[in-house]
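Fill in residues.
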């Protein structure tokens, strides 16, 4: 299916860049669509010297060039979600969580609890996850305290 240039899907190597931009510019309808506005918003970030497609090892350089952003990456295989990269950059203004599919395509994770809860029991309450150990908590205050320890 072809989309007009204003509403096309991301099928190129710029998925990392566009996921980061989408994290700061969420939309309710069709977040997978790439607009000219989103591309302009992506250009406000510093990608100097970074080659695409983005590799896990290059995310640290992106974080150093964009000191307000921490990027965490999860993987998915055999119906299981697992950690690939947890940002070493503590105390950042924005945490962006991405899912890396087939070692080449980044997807923005809008709701980490929703993604990871399917691996748990059938409880319907929201859960808060620690990205360092993937343990879950039912209260945000508890996970925040856990992260401090």
């Amino acid at each position: 299916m072809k989309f007009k240039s204003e509403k096309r899907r991301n099928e190129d190597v710029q998925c990392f860049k566009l996921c980061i931009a989408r994290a700061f510019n969420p939309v309710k309808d069709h977040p997978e669509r790439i607009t000219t506005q989103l591309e302009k918003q992506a250009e406000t970030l510093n990608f100097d010297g970074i080659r695409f497609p983005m590799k896990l090892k290059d995310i640290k350089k992106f974080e150093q060039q964009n000191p307000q952003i921490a990027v965490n990456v999860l993987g998915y295989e055999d119906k299981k979600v697992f950690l690939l990269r947890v940002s070493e950059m503590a105390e950042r203004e924005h945490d962006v969580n991405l899912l890396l599919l087939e070692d080449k395509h980044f997807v923005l994770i809008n709701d980490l609890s929703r993604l990871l809860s399917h691996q748990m029991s059938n409880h319907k309450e929201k859960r808060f996850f620690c990205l360092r150990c993937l343990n879950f908590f039912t209260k945000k205050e508890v996970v925040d305290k856990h992260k401090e320890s």
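The beta strands are 8-9, 33-34, 69-77, 80-85, 94-101, 105-108, 128-129, 136-137.
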